[in-house]
Amino acid sequence: MPTTRRAVVTTLAAALTGAVGAPAHSAATGNGRGQGRPAPLRRAHAHNDYLHERPLHDALSHGFTGVEADIFLVDGELLVAHEPAELDPARTLRSLYLDPLLARVRANHGGVYRGHRRSFQLLIDIKADGVASYLELDRLLRRYRRMLSSCAHGHARPGAVTPVISGDRSARAPMEAQRVRYAFYDGRLEDLAAADPAPASFIPLVSSNWTHSFSWLGAGEFPPAEREKLHTLVTTAHRRSQRVRFWATPDLPGPAREAVWHELLTAGADHINTDDLAGLEHFLRRHDR
């Protein structure tokens, strides 16, 4: 099976911004605090994380607490890629994410970052065959259940890593039918508007394409009606103990991107989505200071 890789985005993004990221660490068992290691950033989410030179590890070296992996089911194996042409049998969900996360959790005494107990979000985007892919994913996740958040009979229990299933919406039915599962569902804005909304124990995260709800892309003033809409969406989700993430926000370095990121922080959005690991780390640490 041919191997095709997309261009690595980290180096280009860092060069464009001039930002200096935290030092990278190749060891899967890196601590994550002290000795030059970055403190975790609870809002930092690595979109299409597997396109970076070192999937997962680059995000961790910048303090990210969430990553996204797209998967395809191929001959019983869950492979990580954005398109079928990029499939590589060596790039599995196990080898790129589950095994190194398990190694870190063991080394750090129960957390992805040592001394940090907030769960690390592993967003798994099923690209095709939602039902079959989820059923295989469920079988795989049960082998890692000691480190995973879970839900049994409607009661959620936090773990070091929380898998959240996105992408192909047909995965929802088999998930809802389970009495015990080791993954959660990525909701959409229509789930917030539902007359009988699913609980946070099933949908802890609500994600949406920014451009489907907002015309503003960071240039000029944020229209007051759109700002009010953003705050209302986040407030509604938080009232239900759900988190909010938008994708397709501006991601080229510059004032427009920073303006949108600032509005997301002000509204209380829980995750900021980016391909530019160093750029978002620099922005969030500057904001914290």
Question: What does the model show?
Answer:
It comes from Streptomyces xantholiticus. Keywords: Signal. This is Altered inheritance of mitochondria protein 6. This protein is 34% helix and 21% strand. It has 289 residues and is α/β, with parallel strands linked by helices. It has one domain: Phosphatidylinositol (PI) phosphodiesterase (TIM Barrel), CATH 3.20.20.190. The strands form 2 sheets. The chain has an 8-stranded parallel β-barrel with strand order 1-2-4-7-9-10-11-12, surrounded by 5 helices. The protein has a 3-stranded antiparallel sheet with strand order 6-5-8, with no helix packed on it. Strand 5 and strand 6 form a beta hairpin. Residues 1-35 have low confidence and may be disordered.
In total, how many beta strands? 12
Q: Please name the CATH topology.
A: TIM Barrel
Based on secondary structure, the structural category is alpha/beta
**Known CATH architecture:** Alpha-Beta Barrel
Q: Which geometry do the CA atoms define? A: globular
Describe the largest sheet. Answer: 8 strands, parallel, barrel
Task: Tell me the fraction of residues in β-strands, as a range.
Answer: 15-25%
Q: What is the residue-mean pLDDT, rounded to a whole number?
A: 90
Task: Give the C-alpha Rg.
Answer: 18 Å
At the first level of CATH, the class is: Alpha Beta
What's the SSE pattern? HEHEEHEHEEEHEEHEHHEHEH
Residue share in helices? 25-40%
Individual helix count: 10
Name the strands of the widest sheet in spatial order: 1-2-4-7-9-10-11-12
Distance between the termini: 48 Å
Low-confidence stretches: 1-35
